[in-house]
Amino acid sequence: MTVRRHLITGDPVVFAPERAGRPHAFIDDEREELCPFCPGNESQTPPEILRVGEPSRWSVRVFPNKYPAVEGHEVIVESPDHDASFDSIADAAAVVRVYVGRYRALSSRPGVKYTALFKNHGRFGGASIPHVHSQIAALPFVPPRVEREGDAFARAPDCPLCAAIGAHRRDGLVIREGASFVWLAPSTPTFAYQQWIVPKQHQNEMAAFGEDEQRDLTVLLQASAAAMRAISPSHNWLFLNFPGEPSAHAYVDLFPRVTNVAGFELETGTYIDVVDPAETVRLMR
Ligand SMILES: [Zn+2]
Ligand SMILES: [Zn+2]
């Protein structure tokens, strides 16, 4: 793996030809005896970094990605059940604890500039294995999206996301509120049925999420996963963090995959949304 710089913009580009050998369980077969994430097949994954439960009766496993895009690229298998989705996991709170724990561990490593945590669910969400999992990757650079959003927070006189919570409440764009998070449909979505889960307290990194916050986040992530699966078999969620930028406000970006990123978006970097956020609120509820 190497990080190269785009010859025009200087943006980082990850070169990882070893990922070409990844399995394609969606194309080949989905049978459990072939799934490297199923119980009984633990020897097919690299050695565990972390496990919740006993070696033969685990609920969560973390191990290095066999086909890493970068150093410190880990897979979080979120349930032993091959057919589970995040909303049906019995101990989803343990998964969110693992998210925060691995984020803290990886982001404090020397040389790490950003830690990306994301879920690819379903074939059109980019998952190469259907068994429920997320990934976390420690990057030696700050991704352009995070840098751009972090700069915008730094320039703003007041935090735009703190202000957005109140505005979305007024405009009826809050789907649901927990004690410490708001689940809302952003008023300027870039994807159909896009939602954000935003901490009510201004925090720039998920490393700060305490136990109560983690439980609250779990409930909203499960509710979103269930609602998104009613719309599409595929979805993504992305944890946006802003290490070293205290004026920025961390959030989770979530969307079911109903449309593809296509030529217009790829050429212009501009997204076309076709669903009114009020409709997203109605469907998610
Ligand atoms: Zn499996
Ligand atoms: Zn804020």
Could you explain how this protein is built, in words?
The structure is a single chain. With 285 residues, the protein is an alpha+beta fold. It folds into 2 domains: 1-141, HIT-like (HIT family, subunit A); 145-285, HIT family, subunit A, CATH 3.30.428. It contains 7 helices and 12 strands. It has a 10-stranded antiparallel beta sheet with strand order 3-4-5-7-6-11-12-10-9-8. Strands 1-2 form a two-stranded antiparallel ribbon. Strand 1 and strand 2 (12-15) form a beta hairpin. Helix 2 crosses helix 5. The chain is globular, with a radius of gyration of 19 Å. The model has no long low-confidence stretch (mean pLDDT 93). The site of one zinc ion has 5 residues, from helix 4.
Strand-helix topology:
Layout: E1 2-5, E2 12-15, H1 25-28, E3 50-54, E4 57-64, E5 73-77, H2 92-107, E6 114-121, E7 133-139, H3 144-155, H4 160-170, E8 174-177, E9 181-184, E10 195-199, H5 211-229, E11 235-240, E12 251-256, H6 263-268, H7 277-284
Antiparallel strand pairs: 1-2, 3-4, 4-5, 5-7, 6-7, 6-11, 8-9, 9-10, 10-12, 11-12
